[in-house]
Amino acid sequence: MTEDEFDAFYAAAFPRLVGQLYALTGDHGEAQDVVQEAFVRAWDRRRSFLADEAPEAWIRTVAMRLAVSRWRRARRWLDLVRKNPPADRVPGPGPERTALVQALRTLPEAQRTAVVLHHLCDLSVEQVASETGSPVGTVKARLSRGRAALAAQLSAEPDTEPDAGPDGRDTSGVRDDGDGQSAKESGRVR
């Protein structure tokens, strides 16, 4: 078979063979794959292919064998997985990691990039500077500001609000001497 004859044969037979293999496999994508693979194998033998020797039957047989082989391989894998189930899934991130990610999201992009590259990717300050195209001093400043912002956010109690006094002002950190009046209000702040 010449290349032109093979191309004409491919154009005529491919849709028909895919339909037949689809009926066998029940999966259109799988049918296309095995028929295409059979045609690739036929391409290598196109010179010995004779048009009157039923090349379509040869391709159908090869495609069916490929489909059965894939099915058996998938079944063996499924049997193996059933006998030896995978280990329990890795647990999701803990509350500390979630809090860190939330705090990192609040940082400006340049600070966040510097902090992540330096502390999570273990790059030196010089490597961070090289990767971001920033001077070393700028990276150091971004790291310092980013760490300070993260420390402030992560050290605060996550679900508590500041204590409010009768006038609505924040009274956290103000001592009450037990007489109902804070030490600050009575002028006895130490």
- Estimate percent helicity: 55-70%
Name the shape in a single word. Answer: elongated
SSE ordering: HHHHHHHH
* Uncertain ranges: 172-186
Q: Report the biggest beta sheet as strand number plus sense, adding barrel if it closes.
A: none
Q: Specify Rg, calculated over alpha carbons.
A: 35 Å
* Fraction in beta strands: under 5%
Helix/strand/pairing category: mainly alpha
Question: Can you give the mean pLDDT?
Answer: 80
How many individual β-strands? 0
Question: So how many helices?
Answer: 8
N-to-C CA distance: 102 Å
Descriptive terms for the model:
190 residues; mainly alpha; 8 helices; 0% strand
Care to give the gist of this entry?
With 190 residues, this protein is an all-alpha fold. The protein is built from 8 helices and no strands. Mean pLDDT is 80; it is low at 172-186.
What does this molecule look like?
The structure is a single chain. The chain has 190 residues and is an all-alpha fold. It has eight helices and no strands. Helix 2 packs across helix 3. The radius of gyration is 35 Å and the shape is elongated. About 8% of the residues have low confidence.
Fold blueprint:
Layout: H1 3-25, H2 28-44, H3 55-83, H4 95-106, H5 109-120, H6 125-132, H7 136-155, H8 183-186
Helix pairs in contact: 1-2, 1-3, 2-3, 4-7, 5-6, 5-7, 6-7
